[in-house]
UniProtKB/TrEMBL annotation, chain A:
Residues 281-417 form the Amidohydrolase-related domain. One of its GO terms (molecular function) is dihydroorotase activity. CDD domains: DHOase_IIa. Keywords: Pyrimidine biosynthesis. This is Dihydroorotase. Residues 50-235 form the Dihydroorotase catalytic domain. InterPro entries: Amidohydro-rel, DHOase, DHOase/Allantoinase_Hydrolase, DHOase_cat, Metal-dep_hydrolase_composite, Metal_Hydrolase. One of its GO terms (biological process) is pyrimidine nucleotide biosynthetic process. The keyword Zinc does not apply. It comes from the Bacteria.
Automatic annotation (TrEMBL), chain B:
Reversibly catalyzes the transfer of the carbamoyl group from carbamoyl phosphate (CP) to the N(epsilon) atom of ornithine (ORN) to produce L-citrulline. The lineage of its organism: Bacteria, Pseudomonadati, Pseudomonadota, Alphaproteobacteria, Maricaulales. It comes from Maricaulis salignorans. This is Aspartate carbamoyltransferase. It is an enzyme of class 2 (transferase). Residues 13-155 form the Aspartate/ornithine carbamoyltransferase carbamoyl-P binding domain. HAMAP family: Asp_carb_tr (MF_00001). Keywords: Pyrimidine biosynthesis, Transferase. Pathway: Pyrimidine metabolism; UMP biosynthesis via de novo pathway; (S)-dihydroorotate from bicarbonate: step 2/3.
Amino acid sequence: MMFAIINARLVDPASDYDGPGGVVVEDGIIIEAGPDIDIDACDEIIDARGRILAPALIDLRTAREPGLTPDGETMGSLAAGAARGGVGTLMLAPNARTPQDSPDSLAALVRTFSDHGVRFLAAGAATVGLAGEQMAEIGLLARCGAVMVGNGDRPIADSRVMRRVLAYSSQFDFWLASRPADAELSAGTVALESDWSARMGLPSEPAISERIAIERDASLAELSGGKLLIDRLSTEAGLDALRHVRSRDIEIAATVAVAHLTLNETDAGDLDSAFRMDPPLRSELDRRALVEAVINGEINAVVSDHRPTPFDDKGEPFALAISGTLSVETLLGAMLGLVHDGQLELIDALRVLTCGPADLLGLPQGRVTAGAPADLILIDGDIPWVVDADALASPRANCAWSGRRFQGRVLQSFVGGINIHNHDG
Amino acid sequence: MSRAEFSYDFPHRHLLSVADLNPVDIAIIFERAEVFLKRNRTPDKSSDGLRGLTVLNLFFEASTRTQGSFEMAGKRLGADVVNFAMASSSTSKGESLSDTARTLAAMQPDILVVRHPATGAPKFLAEATGLSVINAGDGMHEHPTQALLDSFTLAQRWGSVGGRRILIVGDILHSRVARSNIGLLNILGAEIRLCAPPTLLPTDVDQWGVEVFHDLDAALVGCDAVMALRQQKERMTGSFVPSEREFFHLFGLTHERLEVASPDVLVLHPGPMNRGVEIHTRLADDPEISLILDQVESGVAIRMAMLELIGTNIRKGYGS
């Protein structure tokens, strides 16, 4: 089976190409890409009519719900949301509900990965129960299919444990994803320390909590030779720290969650529980600094940090609500919002969603080039739509973007050359 | 221009934050509270203004005086008052607040009086149930009736709090009373000073229309009233001051320290009071200076005024 997509605006951040072009795909692999392709042997030709052809997105931070959760997000609904949102590869990260700290359960999880069209990856827990005390069986987790480790939302407070996990995981060439927060400074907080949170009387964490954690973790990575992944940088103070430590010989990378690029603390100004996030939403200055960092290439990957929560309306006032938002299906739409606003070029927005995360993990996809897997999306950048939390693929409804007007939709998604999503209407 | 010269109806069906009130609203509340204050001193305290309405006291935090004050206020107005001790109820069995709200709303009460450890819980319940809600304290956020009764108590002495210099001293950081008082006193045109160690002050508090001090003797100069706040140990993680002894030495109110204040200085305390920590016991009991019992008395009158104004709007289907 050989097919081609022609007459597209081909946007391939890996080769820094944004111009007319197309691809030829044979047996799930891209065999030709660019402005001049030979389509004579193709069985099927898709005319993109000037629409955007890009690599399918790679999302390094999503969460499932534990097995046997009634009415919850299943692997199938997560995959469906991803396909609709143009995400071809998604990482399941450990979190409190699904710590992914046991080789047995991780192996069982990985066995279900092939059934869903999209590509799943799994990160193992860095410490048992994510408690930050005892190292998890990282070697066995690697054998069972983990491609990196992380400690979920909880920073590893004990510097000695952090040092050892960094050192130990380096033998598997694993990134250690670490939430940049000083555990004590941030304990029990639900908001950024700011004028707004002080007036609201919310327990809040100072932005420098992130700076302190990055400086410590980077120093420990330097000492141990480990690979440190700053898991959701969210403040300008943290970005400053990242810039400083990058001048040293440290393997360090950083992700940013789409919420912190597109929302700020005042979105929760009405204490809407939908905007309860972890890390909390930050100031507009922080948000702008992060957008600048994406433009400057300082951010390796933007992640959805998709997190289905069990109560439709989160069920509790802001300070007590479960944090997190559905975001895998709205990831691209939110990023395109920045493009339409003129804050970000399309190619820069796509870089942190495709080849950026691919290069971190050495994945072959995330690029439109001969020899790469045919993980592709066709986007109409102009279609307007209103996000409706109830209409998303997830059975949960906790979406911070619900009600927002987006511009741009994924028309078709391909993974390994197989069409896994067609936009109707 | 007095209120009689134009038509303005009290527009609220909730009391969630002092920021929702304007000076005329406050004047209306004080006017009604004054009527109730006088009537409460007579043997004929009861009226039937709220007969037929049900007031639900939902206290998710233990409270004696505020809950008792609301209960007495509701009963004196003829309402059916039901107390739900939520601290020991279904929420500790894992029910979400929105489920609790739906359950309570099904009992068809009219007014919810809510105290909750989380900021925004009263507003959340107002939205979830569609019922009228009076905020009786939410986390570290607001305690509007306390601020109203504090200003009302002072206004009873002075006629008005506008232009007066008022100092709030103690644990401002964890205090919803301080936040509501700062908001209300600013609306009423008072000059507000705060005094606390830096560990007990909120971020950027100097932008709240107040003057900030760390030295009590400097802060007290020329003050017409002083509000002492207790340390909210239940909201503290770790230590914010080294000891109670040191706190009293630096921030405790005594007769001697008040000598630099206005000669007619008044002292308030929202209670419960820690004698010898934030206030000297002799000062707390000095009837010339201490308004602590006046505050308690005003509290019932202010809460009657609020319940009546809100109850009237519920009856008329008026207000937002």
